[in-house]
Amino acid sequence: MKEFAPAKINLFLDVIRKREDGYHDLGTVFQTIDAGDTVSAETRADARINLSYNKPQDYPVESDLVYRAALALRDQSGNDTLGADIYLDKVMPLGAGLGGGSADAAATLRLLNRLWDLRLPPAELERIGAKLGADVPFLVRGGTAFAEGIGERLTFIEPLDLPAGEVLLVATPHDAVPTKDAYAGVPKSGPDRWDAYKAVWAGGTDAEKSFGCHLLDSDSFFNAFEISVFPKHPLVEDMKRRILDLGARVALMSGSGASVFGVFPDKSTAETAAETLKPYTRYLTLTKFWHN
Known about the structure:
The chain is an alpha+beta fold. The chain has helices spanning 65-77, 100-115, 122-130, 136-141, 179-183, 192-202, 207-215, 225-229, 234-245, 267-277, and strands at residues 2-18, 24-44, 49-53, 83-89, 144-149, 153-157, 167-173, 222-223, 250-253, 260-264, 281-287.
């Protein structure tokens, strides 16, 4: 049994405030994309959970979100006899701001929920996922959503698609951005920018349609982490500049980096850009938005 684990990008991301618990309140718009990893699993009769990969990883299996998601779901089921052999076909890069590890965990929850015939509703899987990582609840369902708090307060909207003919390019330079680098020095904007952004969605007679147009307007894309990341990681800033120079109508860093995505007006321009960018990337794909 297999499950696709679509990655995500952030169409908008602002850091509102630092909380007393040390975390930060964010305002962001998540969007899943048609690129990601694949998780496969088979049942075991001996109650063991094994995890293997298509290529060696640089961390112990026990710390992998896939392994932790399997344990968390089994604990929730109350049946400690459940076991599985899990195989992760890992494609997405680490330290890339694409939510790859969280997407794998979300896919594992969906997959084992079916494999073990637990029949838990999506809301319960999201609740379990929230204990694994802030992005996991969104990635359980995917599509398009507002996220607030540390990313756990979700408002799903009608899933977005790119305008006809446009192509999404996602490129990760030869760099990785530690989360602490992104948060160090990022300005705390307060609620005004995020509230104004949400107000566009709330207004109008056809809110979802008008908001969808606003989300994909070139002037609406924003990521506060570019302010803190670019000075320390010039390869990321350079990638954004290259994507724009190659014809994208908009380019933006995703999450806390290091990946940058660009929206190109047509397939030919995107393919030419991808060929030019290959030497400068550790991951590169041409894709589109994803939703069920």
